[in-house]
Design brief:
Elements lengths: L9 H24 L3 H13 L4 H8 L3 H13 L3 E5 L7 E5 L1 H23 L3 H21 L2
Antiparallel strand pairs: 1-2
Helix pairs in contact: 1-5, 2-4, 3-4
Length: 147
């Protein structure tokens, strides 16, 4: 019987690495604002893209619709997010950050960039280029296989 060594299996390694990095970064926004990962991803998605639907947010952040829904409800409760019904389709809502949400997002952006720079500073220039190019190649190949 053939055995799969998870520790050297690329999909497993990528998952573990992404989870570890995400958990480490989550300490920053959790300590600062008490946000969960889905709440942070929702805040960041709206901060970057402006008005979005919950469906678009889920696709952009790779989150299940229930996580998006809970995150939206919590950010709305904090008054960081507003919902506007679509004029043509009442089932659709357009989500946007409020002034308070934008302020929280603007506060988090430099912290997120500093965290990323700290991670990258541990790598040589060649390693940074290799990881950037390698990830881009995998993303491109996965995207083209969807067609």
């Amino acid at each position: 019987m053939e055995i799969l060594e998870l520790e050297s299996f690329l999909p497993y390694r990528l998952y573990r690495l992404a989870d570890a990095v995400s958990r480490e970064f989550s300490r920053i926004y959790k300590d600062r604002h008490g946000l969960t990962r889905p709440e942070w991803r929702t805040l960041a998605g709206l901060g970057q893209h402006g008005t979005m639907t919950a469906t678009a947010l889920g696709e952009q952040s790779a989150m299940h619709k229930t996580k998006v829904s809970r995150a939206v409800a919590e950010l709305e409760r904090r008054r960081w997010l507003s919902r506007t019904p679509d004029v043509k389709d009442r089932r659709v809502e357009h989500l946007a950050l409020t002034k308070a949400g934008i302020a929280a997002y603007r506060e988090m952006v430099p912290l997120a960039k500093a965290f990323e720079q700290e991670l990258l500073a541990k790598l040589s220039a060649g390693e940074r280029a290799a990881i950037t190019n390698g990830l881009a190649a995998i993303e491109t190949n996965l995207d083209s296989s969807k067609d």
